[in-house]
User: Fold this.
Amino acid sequence: MLNKVRWVIASALLTTTAAWAGAQYESLLSSCTTINCSGMTIRGIQQSAEPFVIQVFARQGECMRLDVSSQTEDTALLLVAPTVDETGFADDIDGTRPIFGLDPVPHTGWWTVAISYFMFDERISRFTLEYGRYPGGNLNCSQATATKAMAPSQLTPKDGSVTKDVKPAADSADATSQHD
Amino acid sequence: MFTRASLAIVTAVVAASTAWAGALIESRVSTCGTINCAGETIRGTHQATEPFVSQIFARAGECLRLDVTQESADTALRVVGPRVNFTAGSNNRDAGDTRPLLQLDALPTTGWYTVLVSLQGAGNTVVRFTLDYGRYPGGNANCQS
Assistant:
């Protein structure tokens, strides 16, 4: 009986650890050329007053695409460089979904990704994040597809101003695809 | 043997979890009025190209002080609000003093603020530092210049 309890505790801790904010993800580089054709699909939740935070890896010179492909609420995405005085921000790139294409990635290392509802609110947001690494110049970071391809010099702090209207909270349990 | 193995796993996981980037830390509010007189003292490390990341709690209207009091190399500090398009950063507190300091008075919202500390500028240097995190009533001396 005691052994079973210990195994339950161990299993619970391992399960919990996998979803801990601040987890590190490393996708493989891919040279495919359709949108979100490679990488990792991460299902995340922004809890009430607690943003979703992870770290993802990318190398200097690559194209990194971060694409909230589905969401239950209007989310925003903040990207912080391995040197934390550089940031980038995305909101309402495809409808209300944030998409961030960084090409070329200026520094090798771990990039912090934070996602939340776009303004102060107690609501919970569920979403799907596509994280992909591609060679520099890949279609996944082109203006035509990501509309937010940013040069390193454009990674700057963002103020907190918001001008959008707030809509009622969604009651759906899971994020549904908003792709056309 | 089986029991020892399961205990070893539990111990290893617990030990790893306490140091995991992204841990949640909640200090108590204090009304004391001298610099860094209350709160949590966190000893952290920026691994090469991997910033230190943690989430700390604060309430709307409070003074939040984040003070890198010691550093083994020049660090940068950033805080991201519960709504991620609120962010503030610090590199140097004064000319000739490379330790970053953020004093955020009258916080806009209650929730978990993400704190990041890294080497200032790109590089493979490992940096060790001490971060003092304190919550005080709005207008406290810890948020005055």
Notes: Confidence is low (pLDDT under 50) at residues 10-20, 147-160, 176-180 of chain A.
